[in-house]
Structure formats: C-alpha cells, structure tokens
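Researcher: First entry.
Model:
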Amino acid sequence: MAKYWFCVKHHAVEGPDGCPPIDRLGPFATEEEASRALEKAQERNDEWDNDPKWND
C-alpha cells in the first residue's frame, strides 16, 4: 500500500523518501488525501474550537 505525506516546509506531497518527519503530515493513503492535509487540519481545528464540550 502506497503512503504519502504532505511536507509543510515545501507545501508538496511526498513519498516515503521525502523530508524528515518533523516537516511532514501523514501518512495518507492517496496523493489526493495528502494534498488536502492543511485543509483537513484546519477543518479539525475548527471542529475542536466549536465543540460545545470544550466550551462549558
């Protein structure tokens, strides 16, 4: 199974031989999922910021 990462330093999708782990998000199953890594992270942050369990 291929795995992909998103490099936050270069804003690019990488394979297993990419940048060091500290600079990457993932792994993801597809290149498309990896390309949306920042969007997905923002969606999760928004969900957590608006979670009523954390705002009581």
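Researcher: Second entry.
Model:
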Amino acid sequence: MKPTPLKITSILSLGVLCISLAAILVRQAQHAYGGSNAHIGLLIAAARMILAGSLLLPATLSSVRKTKPTPRAVFFAALAGVFLALHLALWITSLSYTSVAISTVLVTTNPIWISLLMWLIFRQVPPKLTFVGIGFAILGSVIIGLSGGTSTPSSPLSNPLLGNSLALLGAITVSCYYLAGQQAQKLGLSIGLYAGIAYGTAGLVLAPWPLIVGIGYTAPLEFYVWIALITLIPQLMGHTIFNWAMRHVSPLLVTVVILLEPVGASLLAAWLFKENLTLSIVAGGLVLLFGVMVTVWAEMKKGELEKPVLQTSPQ
C-alpha cells in the first residue's frame, strides 16, 4: 500500500533535519580528533559505515534467511553500498578543505546528475530546459570554486579548489547510490534488508583505508561519540528515510527535498564555527541552486517527479 502524500512529506521533513546535521557532526568529529590530517575523512567515513553495518547485521542475516532475495537485487544493493562508500569518502574529506556552506551546496546538486543519469541509463531524454538549468548550475559551481572560501582559514589543509571538487564528485556518486538503491528495492528488497546490505558493503569497502593511509583507528573517545551520533542521525535515520522514499516517488522529487540541507547546515556552521559566508559564495550558491530548480521544474513539466523511475520486477 502506497503511503499518503502527507506521510511521505512528514517523513522526508524528518530526513532533511537529520542530514542537515551531518556536516556539523563531521566537523565536531574532526575537532575531537585534533590536529590536521588529510586522511581524517576516510577514518570518519569508515567508522561510520562499519558501525552502521554492524548494528544492522543481525537483522540483515535474519531477513536474508527468511526472504531469500534474488541475486540481482542483492547485486544492486551491494553496488549502492560501493557508491555510498565513494560518496562518503569524497564528501567528508572535502570538509577538511572547504567550508560547510560550499561543501553542502555542491554535494546537494543531485537533481542535475540524476537527470543526466536517467538520460544516459534509462534513455529518458531531458527537456531542453533541463540543459539550461545544468548550465546555470555549472556557472554557480565555477563561481563558488573561485570564491576562495575555506572551512577554517588558519588550517594548513585549506584548499578550496580541491575541497569543492571532492564535494562535486560526492554529489555524482551519491546520485548513483540513490538510483542503484531504488533498483534494489524495486527488485523486492525491503528497506531494512536493502539498508543492511548497502551499509554493510560500504563498511567493508571503507574498512581497510584508514590502515592503508596510515591513520589507523586509534582516536580519542570523544571522536567516537561523534561517530556514534553521525551513524545514528544522518546515516541510520536520514539516509534510510531517503532510500525509503525512493521506493514510492521519483529520485528527482527526493533530491529536491535534499536541497534544503545546505540552508540548515550553513546557518549552523556560521553560528557554531564562525564560518564566513562571503558575497561570492552566496552569489555562486544562489546561481547553482537556481540552476538546480530550473532543472527540477523542467522535469516537473515532463511529469517525472510523480513516479518512480523503475518499475517493480517480478521475483
């Protein structure tokens, strides 16, 4: 039974609140770790997904025994997990080099990339207006990239161009994650089983990297307290809510809602971390978001926001 629009709206609103805290909690974990290390993002991403996968493991194993999912469904869930691992590694690392405001604006450009992926993969040709929106989004990204804004100006790791590029790549990989996750659910996986497989796969992919880069898993207790909060709120609640919504509505509609994340995250960062929102950053962000909204409006006129991209396949 499909949930009512009111239920979908209410649950998505909770999801936005959860993911708006992601960048703030990551920054707190960075501060708790202490010092400047270019690889701290890999440790945060790995610890987050190992914990999430471990918490869901008993229920995942039980569900696999009961439902016996098809290999194809499991494949797409695992593929989503690989993309999730890439997304988290890229985006969390970006927060070491650029501001919360810039990073969250760039990483929430999902409607652009999902429109393109739907075109390339599902042969759903976007309207001409979609390309106009993409053009504005690219212009906004260029303005932000040249703004010179940093997360912490005194940090030796400050490198806006690198941080902005990582955040943009994070947007592309999370778009692939959402589409693969929707496919897994349309092939019969429940949201709980899908999350268990995807999060567990992401944890396995990320687990060796802190050891490979030499940072290890040794960190202050406070660091792991923030990791627990990151796992509980943005991951197990926020990500799972958006994945659930993908089962019932178009990915474009879900990613439109996610556009609210930079607003809350930027205001919190300005208040908590005294991050400056320069005129060029604000202007670039507005141009970028205008481009995203034009893209979404074009898709709305085409009617793609009202239905899932993928239809349920028989078992």
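Model: Note on the second entry: The chain has one domain: 5-306.
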